[in-house]
Write a structure and sequence with these properties.
The chain has 183 residues and is α+β, with helices and mostly antiparallel strands. It is 48% helix and 18% strand. The protein has two domains: 64 residues, no CATH class; 91 residues, no CATH class. Helix 3 packs across helix 4 and helix 6 packs across helix 7.
């Protein structure tokens, strides 16, 4: 579905449905907005998740700075250490894993991997915009994704502080299916 067809479909929706979707967008709730678009568009127009994401992305672009963006994760060592101290279980590794969506493109999640109980605990999400602010304009990182550069830098420092290994299976290429850390 091209942009013109998406706009036409959007305008055909009842005002209440448009308001509901826009409400999710303005709260930066991508998945909530996509769910509503799929729910109302699947049967009548064959809209699946991919097209729904494009429709919702159009709404994000429409609202721009008016979207109440989710606050950026703190990336300083003290904040990450404090977050890690709140994890249930013994931390055995700090791991960086790729993730992505249509709004943020590729990003990296920093996780504390624990045992007793076993689990992954989110410490920070490094988006490109967050990475640019963190790194500033001083250095050139070549073709590396800035989110990976920052995740590697802060994840390694945190792992060192906690005396555990740091694992990032694919630091040079976004890969959300890269092998996870194994003890």
């Amino acid at each position: 579905m091209d942009k013109a067809a998406r706009a036409e479909w959007w305008e055909s929706l009842p005002a209440g449905i448009r308001d509901e979707i826009d409400g999710y967008v303005l709260q930066d709730s991508l998945l909530g907005a996509v769910r509503v678009v799929v729910d109302v568009g699947r049967v009548s127009h064959g809209i699946g998740v991919g097209v729904a994401q494009l429709i919702v992305d159009d709404r994000y672009l429409h609202y721009g700075d008016r979207v109440a963006r989710t606050p950026a994760s703190p990336l300083d060592l003290e904040s990450l250490t404090y977050r890690a101290s709140g994890c249930a279980g013994r931390i055995v590794a700090i791991e960086a894993v790729w993730d992505g969506d249509t709004v943020h493109d590729w990003f990296v999640r920093l996780l504390a991997v624990t045992v007793d109980p076993a689990g992954d605990h989110a410490l920070a999400t490094v988006y490109s915009s967050t990475a640019k602010r963190y790194l500033g304009e001083q250095e050139d990182y070549g073709s590396r994704h800035l989110a990976a550069v920052v995740a590697e830098r802060v994840g390694s420092a945190l792992a060192t502080r906690l005396s555990v290994p740091f694992h990032f299976a694919s630091p040079d290429t976004p890969d959300d299916e890269a092998p996870r850390w194994q003890p």
